[in-house]
Amino acid sequence: MAAVLEPYIYEGGIHKHTLITELLEDLGGYLIQKIPAATEVTLIMLIPKKDVPLIEELGTKLLGKLTSAPLTGTEIAVVSPTLAAHHLPHSACDVAEHLRRDGANTNMIGLARGMGRRVALSADYERRLINEHDIALFSFGTFADCIKNKKPKLFEGIDIPIIATGGPDLRTEDVPNADVYVGNIGRVAHRLRKSEELSSLDIMNHKVAEVVGLMREDMSKDPLSVLPPRVMKEIYEQIPQIEQVLTPAPVTLQLDGLRVKLPYAEFHKKVEDLQFDEGTRLIELARVLPSKMKNYILIKIKRESEVGFAI
Amino acid sequence: MDALETFVVESAVPAEAEAYRSIVADVISELMLGGAIGRIRIVLRPEDSLFQMAILLRGSQPPVRLVDVASLGYGVMERKEVKISIREEKYLPKLLEKLWARYGRGQVLQPERNTLIIRQDHDPEKEIVSLGSMLIADPKEGLQSRLIEMAIRSTPEGFRVRYHAMKENSFIFVASEDTLKPAWIQQAHQMLAELQEEQ
User: Fold this and answer.
1) pLDDT digits (tens, 9 = 90+) for A113-132
2) Which fold has domain A75-219?
3) What is the tally of helices (H) and strands (E) in chain A?
4) Which pLDDT score, from 0 to 100, does residue A3 have?
5) In the prediction, which pLDDT does B34 show?
6) Which among A115, A143, A188 has CB closest to B157?
7) Measured between alpha carbons, how far is A201 from A12 in angstroms, rounded to an integer?
8) Are B8 and B41 in contact (CB under 8 A)?
């Protein structure tokens, strides 16, 4: 049984940060994402629970900061009714940015015809794209009447947990089919930076983390046959072309899979044939599918009950 | 009439009206319409998919000439230089563009943030007089397009059926996602009449 891994974000100077990544590798943790920015670096990583103090000690020595990042390893779709200036960049982008601060990978999705009340609708392609994620977060506007009565039809066909954000202070029960509703994040035309706006974003992150916690708990009843970060590590070791991918997260972790940002037609065989030390290939443990996003590869890992064993 | 002396947003739920007022205020400041609008009233009925807006513009502001925003003087007399000390920096980019067009880029020097030196061959005294009356900015310019942009940005996005009426100093905008009822447009005209009656 693999060690229990805890998600953390390290923020510090780029000088000597490789000491952290080396220690992490020695401890059996995983580096999920490394974001260098001039002289600073942000490391998103999974650390074995009992070894967290070791990394923390080294981080303090390097004058960096280690904070818990409960959303690490999740891919969240931030859905806005359209891509018009009415919804973007504020507040939808501010919402996405705040989720990323807790380690989530976010994708902004603007629906083609999501605006309005009677006329709002989503396309089949859009619903399938959203369903590839772990969680869908819908960013709505100011009016309680719209959020309660009209907008929930955009939730139809979405089978992943749904979080809705909006301006009025409603209860989750008032918004049909939403798993969580977070208020006070409605339509605004300025950047969210006042203290009450930021505290609503904090509440949102907290509630999303709760949902992720429930999903993880649910999954632990019938665990995945292999951990997504383990697959990620093997991809980096066995498919060297992944190093040439320029997106910020060439391999994006999901709770029950991964998105590999390589063309499906060219690389899906290589992904399917990934070898594990235990002697199995990835295709025995997971479904390798073409993603709806560009021509990427989507891996959905099968459960232990389906495969019969876990590595 | 002062700038934005009346700024009312009405809706069934006061908190939502307040939130919407902040959106409209942001849009107005983004499009720099604060000085142009005197009174504005917006009525929102999300349950009917209706947005009504009436705006009363302030009396048209006079065009800005160089003497209004800068003081002109002499530079080095032997070289017939003209010196401009600008007081309102926001007009500097437009002024520079006009000066470059008139004298050429090499002849306009900016030794310091608010000071411009112009090298030229004419009589400096006459040049100062003609420069002083140079038109730098016209507040009316682009006002119409900015007003329409403001209306579209502040309306809920799905309300794509629109009516507008623009006169010399007033602007009416009605939007919905369904066919507009004549009564709604009538109400908007009524709103404007009420704004005009306000003292």
Assistant:
1) 999 888 889 999 999 999 99
2) Rossmann fold (3.40.50)
3) 10, 13
4) 66
5) 85
6) A115
7) 24
8) yes
Distance CA B38, CA A227 (A): 63
Determine the residue among B30, B50, B150, B157 to mutate to test chain A binding: the one whose Cβ has the most chain A Cβ atoms within 10 Å: B157
Contact B19 A84 (CB under 8 A): no
Contact across the interface for A87 and B178, Cβ inside 8 Å = no
Instruction: Show the tokens assigned to A60.
Output: 């303090």
DSSP, collapsed to helix, strand or coil, labels residue B44 as strand
pLDDT digits (tens, 9 = 90+) for A230-269: 999 999 999 999 999 999 899 999 999 999 999 999 999 9
ipTM above 0.95, yes or no: no
User: Which of the listed CATH numbers 3.30.70.260, 3.40.50.300, 3.20.20.100, 3.40.50.1970 matches domain A5-68?
Assistant: 3.30.70.260
Domain boundaries, chain A: 5-68, 75-219, 228-307
pLDDT above 80: residue A181:
yes
DSSP A151: G
Test the A interface: residue of B23, B31, B47, B179 with most A CBs within 10 Å: B23
Whether residue A136 has pLDDT greater than 50: yes
CB pairs < 8 Å spanning A and B: 63
Q: What percent of chain B has pLDDT over 90?
A: 58
Phi, psi angles (nearest 5°) of residue B189: -65, -35
Q: To the nearest 10°, the Cα dihedral for B155, B159, B162, B163?
A: -60
Q: What domains does chain B contain, in order, with CATH numbers?
A: 6-61+140-197 (no CATH), 64-137 (3.30.200)
Please, which residues bridge with residue A30 across strands? Answer: A46
